[in-house]
Amino acid sequence: MAKTLVFGHQNPDTDTIASAISASYFLNKAYKLDTEAVALGTPNAETEYALNYFKVEAPRVIENADTKEVILVDHNEASQSVANLADVTVAGVYDHHKINFTSAAPLWFINKPLGSVATVLYYEYQTAGIEIPAAVAGMMLSAIISDTLLLKSPTTTPMDKPALEGLAKIAGLSDYEAYGLEMLKAGTDLSTKTAKELIDGDAKSFELGGQTLRIGQVNTVDVNDVFARRDDIVAAIADELSSENYDTFVFVVTNILDSNSDILVLGDNQDKIATAFDVTLVDGRASLPGVVSRKKQVVPPLTTVFEG
Ligand code: MN
Ligand code: MN
């Protein structure tokens, strides 16, 4: 009989990959099931870092579930799942998201609003008295760090830190903060990108009060990593201002760990930008504490000043 496949959502993140590996091992040990962890895509750079660090092989990638039964982790909605989900039976779910799921038969459905599915699984292991292998523990702690941004995101719960500490002990990781920072950094590795790729990444244009503003944003765990390349970035922005006829370029560099941003402003309207954020621009740069969202925290104050 074909193995029961355990997998997380499409565009897999670290929690999805780690929880598939962890849940598969747990179910085989605790319930004598015959399961295999698989994935609906290849690991991202952050997950790759964790897999390499703990010497764990990436799960096999599947297009369709070529089996009778599946177990879902880190998702429960069909739209985020395998293409042929309707053709197979969902035998179990380990999740921490809102529920949009129905079934024709009873199933294991374990959903707790904790920081990560790895946290949920950690307590499943504890309850069942199953030992977690060191490498699996390493992946699980990576998942907690990823989903909670090192216990700093507003999604973090009181259950996550004890789980992370317990897993670090099992994995033999003495400094999970240092490891976590490196892992998160690997996921925001901008070093392979050119300055033009950095500023273009997800840049959008806005027409405000007759001026064309171009606003680009990058995520990082250390704004200094980005500003170390300031000269190249300034040159790339200057090129774009003249070739595309933008009046102003606002480059937003967001620290995902402390939820602060720095902006770098080039072109006209420096006074207006400074007024919008109530800051002083020094060589075009200013810090915007607590700002992470372009849509909600950058464009609205600019609109007020430019169109007010
Ligand atoms: Mn996820
Ligand atoms: Mn998750």
How does this structure look, described?
There is one protein chain. By secondary structure, this protein is an alpha/beta fold. It folds into 2 domains: 4-186, inorganic pyrophosphatase (n-terminal core) (Alpha-Beta Complex), CATH 3.90.1640.10; 195-307, Diaminopimelate Epimerase, Chain A, domain 1 (Roll). Helix content is 41%, strand content 20%. It has helices spanning 14-31, 45-53, 117-128, 134-148, 160-171, 176-187, 195-200, 223-227, 230-244, 270-277, 294-307; strands spanning 4-7, 35-39, 60-61, 69-73, 89-95, 108-111, 204-208, 211-220, 248-255, 260-267, 285-288. The strands form 2 sheets. Strands 3-2-1-4-5-6 form a 6-stranded parallel beta sheet. It has a 5-stranded mixed beta sheet with strand order 7-8-9-10-11. Helix 1 packs parallel to helix 3 (117-128), helix 1 (14-31) packs across helix 4 (134-148) and helix 4 crosses helix 6. The chain starts with a strand and ends with a helix. The chain binds manganese (II) ion (2 copies). One manganese (II) ion binds next to helix 1.
Mean pLDDT: 93
Terminal Cα separation, in Å? Answer: 68 Å
Which sheet architecture does the biggest sheet show? 6 strands, parallel
User: Strand share of the residues?
Assistant: 15-25%
Write the layout of secondary structure elements.
Elements: E1 4-7, H1 14-31, E2 35-39, H2 45-53, E3 60-61, E4 69-73, E5 89-95, E6 108-111, H3 117-128, H4 134-148, H5 160-171, H6 176-187, H7 195-200, E7 204-208, E8 211-220, H8 223-227, H9 230-244, E9 248-255, E10 260-267, H10 270-277, E11 285-288, H11 294-307
Parallel strand pairs: 1-2, 1-4, 2-3, 4-5, 5-6, 8-9
Antiparallel strand pairs: 7-8, 9-10, 10-11
Helix pairs in contact: 1-3, 1-4, 2-4, 2-6, 3-4, 4-5, 4-6, 10-11
One manganese (II) ion binds next to loops.
